[in-house]
Design a protein that fits this description.
Chain lengths: ~270, ~300
């Protein structure tokens, strides 16, 4: 049942593309280079020269926000894509071929799920100094579970469906079977799962950054900006409000996309 | 004693052993020499050996795990490397504030969101429903490390009604509880609403109504009872989020709980304390799933009579 693209979807894609655009064209949208500081211009309020004021070190907040978007969004997208792909593949293999592979995978998932995800992530960040790359890997360690479980369960059901059985009986090659008959019904689910994963990952990354355990790069992430801004929230509230608002809007839009896709693709949900 | 309960309780034992072992082994996964990481370069070899002995790093991994398990059973979690106190002291001192915060947040969200969810289902498609769903979507998207500072800015700085941070009397817990419960409430509202929407058209509800039961009784006695399993499932599945939220909320409000203890220990590389916190959090997590399963048993007659596996 194909419905018209709903307003939630349109609106969130519209807003998100503006934010992604701003991140991509960051150098064209600001007069300052990232990290440029002028110590004499600390904690200025918003003005024509500094759209969102300046922070503790005299860095233009608007510039930090633009470049921070690059980090926060790319870490989120890469991690979510990686872990969804990994999880779906593992789940697909487990569901299709069963046997020892499924057993091992499910036990591994049981063990990982016996711990709260954030603790696994916190522990690993205790052991290794976080970089952008390690952050992607660390968050993926727990994040693939969702899609693996979902895809496995779905494949188990799918295998018994008539069109798959018919295709098998007709002697369709395994690659064709997967490509033409199994993937199309799975893709909407995987995509919805990916949006859920994306908002989760962005939240985890910014939480870690907020706790002071985020990646230590030249360009601060939104979470780090917020954490820094919080210390001077009384003097210049904008420093904490701006990055938090950006995070909120991104997560909100991604959630809205997920909701709207689920409503369109899953006839069961209300 | 039912087989289901027995199986569930027996499962708890190897899992808790696994939790303790992994916490004990954690220190081994540090790349390089953990002692160098802890002590830095300006320390003599003798002192380094002392730290090594203190952490039990001079023995094999197997011995360390065994030693750590033995300690845990006797209530000995080792000594903090920095604060000069035993880890168990620190943990027991910090556990109560965290528990206070988490329990009040769960209580608050249950009390707020279940009635809201029910009302939203009854008003389905109307303005109230729309508002509830909207605020629930906002609640799930609002990072609590942003909501917290915003609340502080408005209620403490601007209005001056509530304290900015710390744990000083009843008024200081208000903002942390709102911050922590926001995402949980948002999820609970949605689940309660969807569940009630499904149940309101069920046969037993029509029967209950047709035999003249008051609407209140239909909703709170019959429908709520039948929705309780899904609500419990969601509450339990949100436990991890609750732990994350507690750690962050404590940081936002300088609430002296386990979360602050842990993040500070991570920053200072105080490994025994990190291990202790890890253990406590993971253990409550395990306990949560055990309790949930036992509650299922109590709530769902199908599980109780073993007719549903």
């Amino acid at each position: 049942m194909k419905k018209k693209m709903d307003i939630r979807l349109k609106l969130s894609i519209f807003i998100l593309s503006w934010i992604v655009g701003a991140a991509i064209f960051a150098p064209g949208l600001t007069f300052y280079s990232p990290g440029f500081m002028d110590i004499t211009q600390r904690l200025l309020p918003a003005s024509q020269n500094h759209w969102l004021g300046t922070d503790l070190k005299g860095i233009d907040v608007w510039t930090s926000m633009l470049y921070g978007a690059r980090v926060s969004l790319s870490v989120g997208v890469i991690t979510a894509a990686f872990s969804t792909l990994l999880g779906s593949t593992l789940g697909f293999l487990a569901g299709s071929y069963r046997g020892w592979f499924e057993q091992v995978l499910m036990r591994l998932i049981d063990i990982l799920m016996a711990f709260p995800g954030i603790l696994i992530i916190l522990t690993i960040t205790t052991l290794i100094d976080p970089t952008y790359l390690s952050l992607v890997v660390v968050i993926s360690v727990t994040d693939w579970i969702g899609s693996a479980r979902l895809v496995r369960a779905e494949v188990l059901g799918l295998k018994e469906r008539e069109h798959i059985l018919a295709a098998q009986a007709l002697g369709v090659s395994p690659i064709q079977l997967i490509w033409r008959h199994m993937l199309p019904p799975l893709l909407p689910l995987i995509f919805t799962q990916a949006t859920q994963s994306l908002s989760g990952v962005i939240l985890v990354e910014s939480s870690l950054s907020f706790l002071g355990l985020g990646p230590r790069g030249k360009v601060p992430t939104w979470g780090q900006l917020l954490s820094e801004g919080r210390t001077v929230i009384v003097e210049s509230p904008l420093l904490a409000i701006a990055p938090g608002f950006a995070l909120f809007i991104v997560i909100f839009c991604v959630n809205l996309i997920g909701d709207s896709l689920r409503d369109q693709w899953d006839p069961k949900s209300l | 004693m039912n087989f289901y309960i027995l199986k569930r309780i027996l499962y708890f034992i190897p899992m808790s052993f696994l939790v303790v072992s992994l916490s004990a082994a954690m220190i081994h996964f540090i790349p390089g020499d953990p002692v160098d990481q802890i002590a830095g370069d300006f320390i003599s070899e003798v002192e380094k050996n002392e730290i090594r002995k203190k952490l039990g790093l001079d023995k094999s991994l197997f011995h360390q795990i065994l030693h750590y398990c033995e300690g845990v059973v006797h209530g000995d979690f080792g000594q903090s490397l920095i604060m000069g106190r035993s880890v168990i002291d620190l943990l027991s001192e910090r556990a109560l504030p965290s528990l206070e915060l988490a329990v009040s947040a769960v209580f608050f969200s249950v009390v707020i969101s279940i009635p809201l969810g029910i009302l939203s289902a009854l008003q389905s498609g109307k303005l109230f429903d729309f508002l509830c769903l909207g605020s629930s979507l906002i609640g799930t998207s609002m990072p609590n490390f942003w909501l917290g500072p915003l609340l502080v800015l408005f209620f403490s700085v601007h209005l001056g009604w509530l304290p900015v941070s710390g744990r000083t009397g009843l008024s200081s817990i208000v903002l942390p509880v709102i911050t922590l419960s926001s995402s949980l409430s948002a999820v609970l509202i949605r689940v309660t609403r969807v569940n009630f929407l499904e149940q309101l058209h069920a046969d037993y509800v029509r029967t209950a109504r047709s035999k003249g039961l008051s609407e209140f009784k239909v909703l709170f006695k019959h429908t709520l009872k039948n929705s309780s399993i899904s609500i419990l499932t969601i509450l339990s599945s949100q436990f991890g989020t609750l732990i994350t939220g507690t750690i962050i909320t404590e940081k936002v409000f300088s609430w002296p709980g386990l979360g602050i203890l842990m993040t500070e220990a991570i920053e200072r590389r105080d490994y025994p304390v990190v291990q202790g916190c890890l253990l406590v959090f993971s253990f409550t997590f395990l306990l949560n799933s055990l309790l949930t399963d036992l509650l299922y048993f109590w709530l769902d007659p199908r599980i109780r009579t073993g007719k549903f596996s």
